[in-house]
Specification:
The protein contains ten helices and seven strands. It has about 260 residues and is α/β, with parallel strands linked by helices.
């Protein structure tokens, strides 16, 4: 995709300098990255769009009406492609803060699905805290996004990218349960592709089971530097499809220039 440049030649030669054009150039889709994403994807492509840290971390879901409005306006060009709004909460957000989340979720537009990622250990180790969060999410049919880092943390880091991820990624137990018909999973592997593939095998089985139940899961495959993540995501899809043959194959990737999506 590129910008178009329209020029108009005068009907007759003239010795006088031409008057400067008053018509403004048409805006390019590239002027708006979100509009560009919409043009690069099919109408049934699903984006999971993450709320800004200003809302989730800095303002902790309070006094956030204006930044939330601006965010929702920004994703409007995606139309139905904006399938789910992802609310990633900081590790300090614990069970005592769930009523704050409940109020925030109730105020959100019904135009989108919502999914919440938490990192406080109590939600994974205390059944009462997990049940409280599940009940809160159920009120608005929101999903709980697990971020499975267990394979990554099984062995010490072996590269600069792994050392960086080691310091930043959450260490929480794996959660393997879906709450809605649109579960979302984040999985972090290693630099070693073979180890990444070995570690996701339980997720292939879980996702295949969800598909057989009629659910429509979204799986994000991460690595410490994410360099091979797109290819690994395709491999994960192929492995799930081998277990659920009716799952449609992914379309072949279409190169686009300039690349503004990935």
């Amino acid at each position: 995709m590129g910008e178009t440049d329209e020029t108009t030649a005068p009907a007759e030669p003239t010795e006088e300098p031409a008057e400067p054009a008053t018509e403004q150039p048409k805006p390019s889709p590239l002027d708006d990255p979100v509009a560009s994403w919409a043009q690069q994807t099919d109408p049934d492509f699903r984006f999971v769009v993450k709320l800004p840290k200003l809302i989730t971390h800095e303002r902790c879901l309070t006094d956030a009406d204006e930044p939330l409005r601006l965010f929702l306006e920004a994703i409007e060009p995606l139309g139905p492609r904006a399938d789910t709004v992802w609310i990633q909460l900081p590790a300090a957000f614990g069970p005592a803060d769930v009523p704050l989340l409940a109020g925030f979720l109730r105020r959100l537009s019904a135009s989108y699905r919502y999914a919440v990622e938490v990192r406080h250990l109590s939600f994974f180790e205390d059944p009462r805290a997990a049940r409280l969060l599940e009940e809160t999410l159920a009120v608005v049919r929101a999903e709980w996004i697990p971020f499975d880092t267990t394979v990554f943390f099984q062995n010490p880091p072996a590269s600069a990218a792994e050392r960086d991820a080691w310091a930043k990624k959450p260490r929480v137990p794996a959660r393997l349960v879906a709450l809605t018909e649109r579960p979302i999973v984040r999985y972090l592997g290693r630099d070693d592709a073979a180890r990444t593939v070995e570690g996701w095998q339980r997720w292939v089985e879980i996702v295949a089971a969800w598909l057989r139940e009629g659910r429509s899961p979204t799986v994000f495959v991460h690595t410490p530097d994410n360099a091979d993540a797109p290819q690994l995501a395709r491999r994960f899809h192929d492995e799930a499809r081998a277990r659920v043959p009716e799952l449609e194959p992914l379309p072949a990737p279409i190169p686009a220039a300039p690349l503004t999506l990935f």
